[in-house]
Amino acid sequence: MEIPIKKPSEVLVYGYLGRFSKEKGILELLDFFSSINSKLFLAGNGPLENEVADLIKSKPTIVNLGVFQTSEMATFFNQIDVLIIPSFEEAGPLVAIEAMAAGKIILATKVGALEERLAETQNQFWFDINNKKSFEESISKIETLDTETFYQIQKQLRKRYLENYSNEKIKNDYKKLLP
C-alpha cells in the first residue's frame, strides 16, 4: 500500500517508531520533547516501556500508540509529518527506509547508514543525542520550512527510496548478481 505524500499538518506532528530501549535514545527524546509544543506519537515497546509510560503521563502532547504490526505501518506514517530517530547506535536503521518510502521527513542522529541514505536529499536534519540545543535547532529548521520546500523534501525522499531501496530495486540488483 502506497502512502500518499501530503502537505504537512498546520502544526507538525512528530513520530518515533521503534524499541523502547536505552540504545534507541527514547528517554532522551522524551526529555528533549518536553520543551517542544508539538504532538509526538510513539509506537513500539520494549524494556523501558514502564519508564516511557511514567514520563508521558503528564504530557498530553505525547501519545503512546502502542505496537504496530508491519501491515499497519501505513496507519502510523499517515498520522505523522516527521519521523525522529534518536538512536545512540544503529546499523541501518530500517525505520528510516520505511519513512523514506512513506515520504516522511527524518530528524535523526548521525548513526548507521543514515548519512549515506539521505546524502542526495535536502533532508539534512541532524542532532546530537547528548545535546538538547542541537535537537531544538533542528526542530526549528524543520518548523520554519515553507510548505512547498517541505513537500519537495518529501518527494525527494520517496524518489530516493524508489531508486535505491524499494523491493523491486533490490530484487533486480540480486538478479544481476546471479549467474
Describe the structure.
With 179 residues, this protein is α/β, with parallel strands linked by helices. Helix content is 44%, strand content 13%. It is built from 8 helices and 6 strands; from the N terminus they run E-H-E-H-E-H-E-H-E-H-E-H-H-H. It has helices at 26-33, 49-56, 73-79, 94-102, 114-118, 132-143, 147-164, 167-177, and strands at 13-17, 39-43, 62-64, 82-85, 105-108, 125-126. A 6-stranded parallel sheet has the order 3-2-1-4-5-6, sandwiched between helices. Strand 4, helix 4 and strand 5 form a beta-alpha-beta unit. Helix 4 (94-102) crosses helix 7 (147-164). The mean pLDDT is 92.
**Could you name the ranges where pLDDT drops below 50 across 5 or more consecutive residues?**
none
* Radius of gyration, CA atoms, in whole angstroms: 16 Å
Strand order of the largest sheet: 3-2-1-4-5-6
User: How big a fraction of the residues is strand?
Assistant: 5-15%
- N-end to C-end Cα span: 32 Å
Q: Major sheet: size, sense and barrel closure? A: 6 strands, parallel
Label the structural class: alpha/beta
Overall number of strands: 6
Output the number of helix runs: 8
Average pLDDT: 92
Give the helix proportion (percent range). Answer: 40-55%
Question: Which shape, going by the Cα principal axes?
Answer: globular
Assembly level: single chain
The string of secondary-structure elements, in order, is EHEHEHEHEHEHHH
